[in-house]
Amino acid sequence: MSDVADIVRIAARKLVKADGATFVLLEGDQVYYADEDAIGPLWKGQRFDKNGCISGLAILSKEQVVIEDIFADDRVPHEYYRPTFVKSMAMTPVRKADPVAAIGTYWQKTYHPTRQECVILQILADSASLAIETVTVLETLEARVQERTKELEDSRDRAIELSQIKSTFVSNVSHDLRTPLSGLVSVAELLSDTPLDGEQKQLMEILQSSAASLLQLLNDVLDLTKIEAGRIDLESIPVNLMYIVQDVSRTMSVSAFAKHLALKVNLDYRLPELVLSDSLRLRQILANLIGNAIKFTDFGDVIIGADLVSEIDNKVIIKFSVIDTGIGMSNEQMGNLFVPFVQTDRSISRRFGGTGLGLAITKQLVELMKGTITVSSEVAYGSTFEVTMPFEKVAAVALKAVKEEKASTQSIEGVKVLLAEDNIAMQRLTLTQLQRLGAETIIASNGKEALDALRKQNFDIVVMDCNMPVMNGFDASKQIRQDEEGTGKHIPIVALTAAAMTSDVQRCFDSGMDAHVPKPISMPKLQSTIYNLVNNPNPKPQAPTS
């Protein structure tokens, strides 16, 4: 919680060029000024009655409070402000639906923040709320899993029950967190396209990066749950190993450059051009290992290698290696290296952050792909991770036929989209995204309205939320397919939902939908999905790629 407070108070002050900022927590009938960053002392460490101060007013009213002249406003307890520099202020509630805190920003001269600055402060408050909730949920999840595992360790039937409960819990948590996170990511993406000065643009990039980190954390928890439940399906498509290693390394080079580290890539010239593998999961394995190496290395270099170990007929064994000159590990620390939610040392966790999920997921993915992972390390001298995997070579084909990444520049200008979404905020955000992509969009608030619209006019594609009142997206999709029977028509339907478990995706396809795009919504992903479906007369179900 203290880390959240540190980031929020500093970001709040810089985002709106305030002279001071506070982070205020709700504690029963009182508010507690937990932290501050200001040109002069304010109220850090003090508690006040929530009914007698502006932070309490913002929390109780669930609305942002802006006061241009505090001494001309009777709501302000003037005796607490006279010893300070404060002349103007804005107080923003954290988690507007049910506030748990507030962010205060203050100016020593009369000032009224602009509408854009008020919006930015609320986005920051929403981000802080999401961070608090994510930490709480993960701690609760870990505690529940440990408690239930201990109770059921001697009972196989009850252990199966635990796995089902945990999967449902993680799925529900993922859905509940993805919905507000989707709004945060989309608003930040849209706001970044508006005029911002240099510092605001930099802070907005930090906000987008933080949201991406939260999304990755959710994906990690989901991946771990899917692996443990045996619900991850691996692809087997032609991939270019050299390209994948180089592309992942190029992506990670930004982090290495920021720490002034040398990132080197050594590739065996004997590597086959094409092999069958799961490109997404292979990239995930390499990115986790390279990311860890960069995180725990303060100087020196990180070396990525790929070598041919053996080749018999069309079968090959490839060894990937990631070597760093970082802090290294003891034998005792390496013993817990691949245990979920466990980091090798508490001090390391505080210094470098993380949840302890990355390597646990990496090991299980490697084993799913019939490979092995080993590690050797020496304290203060660095670590070496090696992943050895079997692959099957593909008959020689032109490399141009292998599409490692689909271009996201396909135009959907003029495509007629029916958007079925009941959430007002998501309606506005998704509509704005589609309009920026050039699509002509009509909105329906539930499945029944979507059916009525389809029966009255023609559309090129339907973007359908799954959980809606009156008629949900699953039932609406089934009815659409029934209406099409005998007509030769097939309108593409894209499932747009915060549910991202394998069973959720399969339910979409079983209902007649053609593709699944999880929330938060990526504009390039939404664009490419619509383009591919509209331009493919016989679409096959498309599962999400991330």
What does this structure look like?
The protein is an alpha/beta fold and 546 residues long. Helix content is 45%, strand content 21%. The protein has helices at 2-15, 54-61, 78-81, 115-152, 156-191, 198-228, 241-258, 279-295, 331-335, 346-352, 358-368, 424-436, 447-456, 473-484, 502-510, 523-534; strands at 20-27, 30-38, 47-49, 65-67, 88-94, 101-107, 237-239, 262-267, 275-277, 301-312, 315-324, 372-378, 382-393, 416-420, 440-444, 461-465, 493-497, 515-518. Strands 7, 8, 9, 10, 11, 12 and 13 form a 7-stranded mixed sheet that branches. Strand 2 (30-38) and strand 3 (47-49) form a beta hairpin. Helix 1 (2-15) runs antiparallel to helix 4 and helix 13 (447-456) packs parallel to helix 14 (473-484). The protein is globular. 38% of the residues are buried.
What's a concise summary of this model?
This protein has 16 helices and 18 strands.
How are the elements arranged and paired?
Blueprint: H1 2-15, E1 20-27, E2 30-38, E3 47-49, H2 54-61, E4 65-67, H3 78-81, E5 88-94, E6 101-107, H4 115-152, H5 156-191, H6 198-228, E7 237-239, H7 241-258, E8 262-267, E9 275-277, H8 279-295, E10 301-312, E11 315-324, H9 331-335, H10 346-352, H11 358-368, E12 372-378, E13 382-393, E14 416-420, H12 424-436, E15 440-444, H13 447-456, E16 461-465, H14 473-484, E17 493-497, H15 502-510, E18 515-518, H16 523-534
Parallel strand pairs: 8-10, 14-15, 14-16, 16-17, 17-18
Antiparallel strand pairs: 1-2, 1-6, 2-3, 4-5, 5-6, 7-9, 9-13, 10-11, 11-13, 12-13
Helix pairs in contact: 1-4, 4-5, 4-6, 5-6, 5-12, 6-11, 7-8, 8-11, 13-14
